[in-house]
Amino acid sequence: MRAIRTFTIRASLPEPLAPLHDLMLNLRWSWHAGTRELFTALDPAGREQAGHDPIALLGEVPPEHLAALAASGEYLDRLHRAAADLGEYLSAARWYQRAGGVADGTPPAAIAYFSPEFGLAAALPQYSGGLGILAGDHLKAASDLGVPLIGVGLLYRHGYFSQSLSPEAWQLERYPAGDPNGLPLTLLRGTDGSPVTVELMLGEGGPLAAQVWLARVGRVPLLLLDSYVEQNDPGLREVTDRLYGGGSEHRLRQELLLGMGGVRAVRAYCALTGHPQPEVFHTNEGHAGFLGLERIREYAAQGVSFSEAIELCRAGTVFTTHTPVPAGIDRFARDLVEREFGGGAADPALPLDRVLALGAETYPGGDPAVFNMAVMGMRLAQRVNGVSELHGQVSREMFAGLWPGFDAREVPIGSITNGVHVATWVAPEILSCGKGDPGGQPGPGPDDGPAWDAIAETGPARLWEIRGMLRRRLVAEARERLRASWRQRGLSGAELGWTHHALDENMLTIGFARRVPSYKRLTLMLHDPERLTALLLDPQRPVQLVIAGKAHPADDPGKQLIQQMVRFADDPRVRHRIVFLPDYDMELAAAMVQGCDVWLNNPLRPLEACGTSGMKSALNGGLNLSVRDGWWDEWFDGENGWAIPSADDVADSARRDELESAAMYDLLEQVVAPLFYDTADDGLPQRWLEMVAHTLAGLGPRAQAARMVREYVETLYVPAAHSSRALAGDHGEGAFAAARELAVWKQRVKLAWPMVRIEHIEAGDGDRGPGEWLPVRASVALGELSPEDVTVEVICGRVNDEEDIVEPAVSALAPDGPATAEGTFRYAGDARLGRPGPFGYTVRVVPRHPLLDSTAELGLVTYPDAPEGMTNGDLR
Question: Which domains can be identified in the chain, with CATH numbers?
Answer without folding.
Answer: 15-91 (no CATH), 110-124+140-165+172-272 (3.40.50.2000), 444-701 (3.40.50.2000), 749-847 (2.60.40.2440)
